[in-house]
Amino acid sequence: METGKRMLISLAKKIANDLGYDQIIIHGYDSNTNIQSICTYGKTKADCRNAAKGGEVIKQLLGLKDENEIKKAIKK
Question: Which residue, among 23, 10, 15, has the nearest Cα to 53 in the 3D structure?
Answer without folding.
Answer: 23
